[in-house]
Amino acid sequence: MLNRLGKSFRKSVTAAGMFTPDGTVGIVATGAMDIPLFESIVKSLPEGTWELVCHPGYNDAELADIRTRLRDSRVQELRLLTSPKPVKY
Fold first, then answer.
1. Is 70 left (phi over 0), alpha (psi -120 to 50) or beta?
2. pTM score, two decimals?
């Protein structure tokens, strides 16, 4: 479905003289992103510009009031994205 909508969207964006990434990755991995999965995603990317979909953040008191399944994974994704450990690709 996203591919079908994407083609129409890309035409509109191009006609308006704007640029977009070639695609997005990580949507299916939302809430489960860890270093091995992230490395696997990066290794499989074709040439181009890609947008990583994730929800890094803190599981704090403010988030406790929001209904989401992504509380614990926010901290894990924040650690992943700010880790000094180099990604193997």
1. alpha
2. 0.70
Residues 47, 18: contact at Cβ < 8 Å?
no
Q: Quote the CA–CA distance of 46 and 71 in Å, as a whole number.
A: 31
Q: Are 30 and 55 in contact (CB under 8 A)?
A: yes
Distance CA 14, CA 43 (A): 28
Q: What is the pLDDT of residues 29-87, one digit of tens each?
A: 888 888 889 989 999 999 999 999 998 988 888 887 888 887 888 888 998 899 887 76
Helix (H, G, I), strand (E, B) or coil at 60: coil
Cα gap 25→59, rounded to integer Å? 23
